[in-house]
Amino acid sequence: QGSNSLSIYEQLRFVPAKQRIVIMAAAWLNSAAGPMTTHFWGPVANWGLAGSGMYDAAVKGPEIINERMSAVQIVYSGFFVWVAWAVQ
After folding, report:
1. Distance in angstroms (rounded) separating the CA atoms of residues 38 and 83
2. pLDDT category, 4, cuts 50, 70, 90?
3. d(CA 28, CA 83)
C-alpha cells in the first residue's frame, strides 16, 4: 500500500506539528473559500455591517437606530441569502 492511497490528513500525521500548522495554514490561504477570495470577505463585510449596527445601538442608545437603514440591511442580507441559495 503506497502513500498515494492515504488522504492528506492521514499523510499529515507523519509531519512534525509545527510544519503541519504551516502546511494547513497555507492550504487554507490558497483554498477556494480562503481569505484571498470574495467568498471569505463578502460574509466578513456582511457581518461587519450587522456588528456596527449592534455596536451603535449599544453605545449610542436605541434612539440612533434608523428605520430606513434597518430596512436596507434586511433587504441586502435577504438578497445574499437568495444568491447563496441559488449558488448552492
Report:
1. 14
2. low
3. 24
